[in-house]
Amino acid sequence: MSRIASCMQQLKATNRKALIPYIVAGDPDAATTLAALQAMVKAGADILEIGVPFSDPMAEGPTIQKGHERALESGMSLRKVLALVQTFRKTDDKTPIVLMGYANPIERMGYAAFADAASAAGVDGLLTVDIPPEEAHELNAELKRVGIDNIFLLAPTTTDARAKQICELATGYLYYVSLKGVTGAGNLDTAEVRQKLAQFRSYTSLPLCVGFGIKDAESARAVSETADGVVVGSVLVNAMAESGAQSAPAVAAIITNIRQAI
Q: How many domains is the chain partitioned into structurally?
């Protein structure tokens, strides 16, 4: 059983919801990122979602775009992200790690080479924003070969037919994008989230986690009433930008607050 499946199973057995924080690897540098990841686990994070910096992060709002820019300026790359994960694994072999990023760096490395390197580093899941399900089969096969879960996005505009197709390909969990926009944008409509999750549950037994609109304890609590987990990103990336060397305690405080709320 994968780390993600085991984690989700344990959470369900104890009637708890998954707390999945997102920060960008290398923002502002690798050492600060590592300290922040470790601090968030201690504060109650269940799964870590690590952003792989990219020059054109189309799904991101201004806050996370700037995080990608800072990470690239610090010299972070896909291979260095994998090295960061490998370092994290020296002290934590339990917490699941999901890489979230874009197709270009993975395609440049090659699907098979990436899958082998990610598995060796200790990566458990991959969420590639700009690879649609129709084009995911080759990458999916390589990830399955090494036991890495392929996490797919569902959106408010996803049709029934497409949702079924995505659910058939996905493993680990599904990530529901709660807003018709980029990360950090708009107001969260919890009633619509509840309705869409109920629809998607008829297509899959995988856990459904929600992101793109959870900014604080209140919004996390509201979403967790119907979701299996919450993904928190922009508020953490903003804290990393504002806190610099003190990022670890800053993001840990946010995670502690949200953990208590859900």
A: 1
Domain of residue 114: give its range: 3-261
- Kindly report the CATH number assigned to the domain that includes residue 159: 3.20.20.70
pTM: 0.94
* Angle between helical axes of 217-224 and 190-201 (0-180°, round to 10): 30
Give the pLDDT confidence of 217-248 residue by residue, as tens digits.
Answer: 999 999 999 999 999 999 999 999 999 889 99
List pLDDT tens digits, range 123-180.
Answer: 999 999 999 889 999 999 999 999 999 999 999 999 999 999 999 999 999 999 987 6
Label each residue of the chain as H, E or C. Answer: CCHHHHHHHHHHHCCCCEEEEEEECCCCCHHHHHHHHHHHHHHCCCCEEEECCCCCCCCCCHHHHHHHHHHHHCCCCHHHHHHHHHHHHCCCCCCCEEEEECHHHHHHHCHHHHHHHHHHHCCCEEEECCCCHHHCHHHHHHHHHHCCEECEEECCCCCHHHHHHHHHHCCCCEEEECCCCCCCCCCCCHHHHHHHHHHHHCCCCCCEEEECCCCCHHHHHHHHCCCCEEEECHHHHHHHHHHHHHHHHHHHHHHHHHHHHC
Find where tokens 């996370």 sit: 64
Residue 184: pLDDT band (50, 70, 90) is very low
254: Cα separation from own chain's centroid: 17
CB 156 within 8 A of CB 189: no
| Strand order across the beta sheet in which 149-150 lies | 149-150, 125-128, 97-101, 48-51, 18-24, 229-232, 208-211, 174-177, 152-154
